[in-house]
Specification:
Pyridoxamine 5'-phosphate oxidase; Pnp Oxidase, Chain A; Stress-Dev_Protein; Split_barrel_FMN-bd; alpha+beta; globular; YdaG_split_barrel_FMN-bd
Length: 162
């Protein structure tokens, strides 16, 4: 992509299509660990918010090393982001993002001492898409077997402002 505005626009177009992310962190030994988290909110500048348990390994990892990777997949669309995360203890923001679905994991509510926020600031990423979603992808794969031509799709890398 040519400029930051169009890169942010594309990211803001893509992010609402995903409900869940695999957030990859680095443990003390250097091992990578992926954590399935629900995206609670996306901001227009590339920041994403997650509600997590204060004792989750992701929290421990981020406090030590803020660099994270995020991956998303939905109906013929894939997105990978690299960013920096931080643990944010903000009760007002937690209450703003709270929903009944979060209560399944944290039944004591947003004021529970066992719940906090993880904010990820996206720095760069790449996306892949196939026009028409899952069915079109399946048709394109079959057609590629018959014709020997690679399926066509959309792919772009981008960097975001700090």
């Amino acid at each position: 992509m040519s400029d930051t505005v169009s890169e942010l626009d594309k990211l803001n177009e893509l992010l609402p299509k995903f409900r869940f992310a695999m957030v990859t962190t680095r443990a003390a030994e250097g091992d990578l660990h992926a954590h399935p988290l629900t995206v609670q909110e996306t901001e227009s500048d590339g920041d994403l918010w997650f509600i997590v348990g204060t004792h989750a390994s992701a929290v421990e990892h981020v406090r030590r090393d803020p660099k994270v990777g995020l991956s998303f997949s939905s109906d013929g669309l894939w997105l990978s982001l690299a960013g920096e995360a931080e643990v944010v203890d903000d009760l007002a923001k937690l209450k703003e993002l709270w929903s009944t679905s979060v209560e399944a994991w944290f039944p004591d509510g947003p004021e529970s001492p066992g719940v906090t926020l993880l904010k990820v600031s996206a720095l760069s990423g790449e996306y892949w898409g196939s026009a028409g979603g899952r069915i079109a992808t399946a048709v394109a794969l079959v057609a590629s077997k018959v014709t020997g031509e690679r399926p066509r799709g959309e792919n772009e890398k981008f960097d975001l402002p700090d």
